[in-house]
Amino acid sequence: MKKQMIAGLVLVLCAAVQTHAQNRGYFNYKEAAGVLPLNQPPSEPLSLWYNQPSKVWEDALPVGNGRMGAMVYGGVSKERITLNEDTIWAGPPVPVVKENVSDTIQEVRRLLFAGQYAEAQKLQQSVMSPRISPRSYQPLGELVLDFGDVAKASGYRRDLNLDTAVATTVYEVDGVTFTREVFASPVDDVVVVRLAADNPGALSFAMRVNREGIFSVTPSGNDTLIATGQASHGDKHLGVKFASRYKVVAENGSTTTQNSGVSVSGADSAVIYVTAATDYNRDDTANPFTHDLEAVCAKVEVAATEKAYSQLKADSIASHQKYFRRVSLDLGEPSSEDTLSRLEGYRNPRSTKIDPNFEALFFQYGRYLLITSSRPGTMPANLQGVWNKDMQAPWNSDYHININMQMNYWLAEVTNLSECHLPFMDYIERLVPSGQKTARDLYSCRGFLAGHGSDAWHSAVPFGMAQYGQWVVGGAWCTRHFMQHYRFTKDRKFLEERAYPILKESALFFLDWLVEDPKTGKLVSGPSTSPENKFFIPGTKEKSNLTMGPSMDQQIIWDVFSNTLEAAEILGIDDAFTQDVQQALDKLAMPKIGSDGRLMEWTEEFAEPEPGHRHISHLYGLYPGRQYNQTDTPEYMAAMRKSIDTRLASGGGHTGWSRAWIINFWARFKDADNAHENLVMLLKKSTYNNLFDKHAPFQIDGNFGGAAGMAEMLLQSHTGEIELLPVLPEAWADGAVTGLCARGGFEVDMQWKDGELVSGTLRSKTGLPCTVRYRDQVLKLATEKGGSYDLGALATAGDAVAPL
User: Where does the signal peptide begin and end (predicted)?
Assistant: First the structure.
């Protein structure tokens, strides 16, 4: 194995610029066979299904087990399955601190306070660490199955069953029905492809594995391919080394290897087992693992192949359903139309059709994607979850923490996927040492910070252009997820051992970073941006990005300080540090309302070159934050409402993730019509054929943010009350939901008809008291751990509630 690995790693990239993946059209698929559709929905209504094979990667169907992912095209003459493993990243160098810039930062602040924005931005840019790109998350490889010349296929359908996480392709050729199943087992840690024919001996195909870059494939025995390689960009950024095995177990027939491929002839069925291992050491990335990667793959493969296929599949399904079946959403009768037709119903500008059941499918698809791309022990979902076809992915498919990565996890707690949230928090904790070093070496500050983006190598350094890079609150934003996890789970050990320590590190940084605004005496952050927006420098047509105290910074810091103090109070901590945090919070500048009634994005009322900018950063305190609500801050709610109205009137929401964020804003505004209208716009303008989110290109955050917004329309609990159906649109007049989660450790089921609550159940996982609201009706409950409570009294305007 070691000799093979060395041989693979010394392969010259040999004209990487000429290789197939550099051809933009390579991942397109043209079916050689004539295909007649089955045009019949699968038995499981929670399925995406199609009458034709995928034409492009964005048509293909995703399966995953958190660590490994596969995109299934469903071809007839050829099957293409692109494969990923979540740690395959091109490597260093990464952005590092060039020098301590404390003195320069003081001068930049002086210039900004004096209104000398152009000079300040030029000076700040002079000390920015450079952006080092490309340095991308990369594919494991591509599995190609060639079935030879096929003239015509009938009865064709491909589908993805969200309940089982199995992608199935079925069709008939010359009277023989062929069935193909693909899934990624989280139990046995393999991607599995099963091919079967209903006539004995009718299955024949050739298998090969492709990948660009440092990569080699070697046959082993008569049924296995061994692939080894290393992530890189040409001969630069040598990163993670990997090995994978592709073993074919055929029933009857013959199996042979030749020319780096496997051929199967005259079989009844065949199962392909794909295993992968890398040398990535997440706890010490500078010291990769040194064990035999192929041996790791072989061990996993042996264990999987010793199981009967039926048991392998059943175990995978059971593991998936453990998470997936926690929540159900019924918004109407299933449709007999295929998924593309239903999506086209939204895209058609002449159509006003609304399909509530399809919207429920989209919601469950978001949950499906999180389960399959983020499981305990894996890397967190990146910009594309775990699915990426490109050697140089858009934005490197990295961890953008100026909203995108956070949005990936907005749905985790409320849609009952708390365990899927853990990889995100594991990763942020691994950023802390780098963030502490960056804070100390760059700014002479205590604590931890992280800029707008990072990746597998855990760099926390602000880098690139000042317009997006000089932003030090990315890590701070991420810390709110720790408190969010605690609020939903009430896990005191987590609060004490994980949430409070990282909140303290973030708060320490801001205690040193914040400075007094000489005009107001209030504490402000800066130099900083409002991601990734800009303004006209007053009196000129020149644009700038940097200010002191932009609204988003101040709101995130309010969140950090408030969360730190809340956690400290619960834990009984009252010391000099918490007193310093309280004093800083009391002195912290807050956003102002402008002369036009909008919430100000900056501390001055600048003219905006992009009034429809995709980021709506200054509404952070509305969502995902909890700083503003209709009861406590109605004047701010009105100002934010005017801000979003202006943004949308100027063309905002034109990217998928931005539109998803807007759904959540409208949900917090309690505006059902606008929340639903923006969900419709997300489907209409920002959704690919396989329901992946379209930035464009593909970014998975819009899938997660859209699902989170739908949950927020059905249940809210951020103000201290559990509010039932707070934002129910007319399109969802009849429905039911089970298993949504509320802060405090509660699960809620509801049923409604004609827009009115009919019944409800609350289950207490913590035994804490709670207040439940439905419109003007309020119930205060003293619960017991494990108890269930009938909420029907709210539906009938009663004043009593009985335990079930």
Answer: 1-21
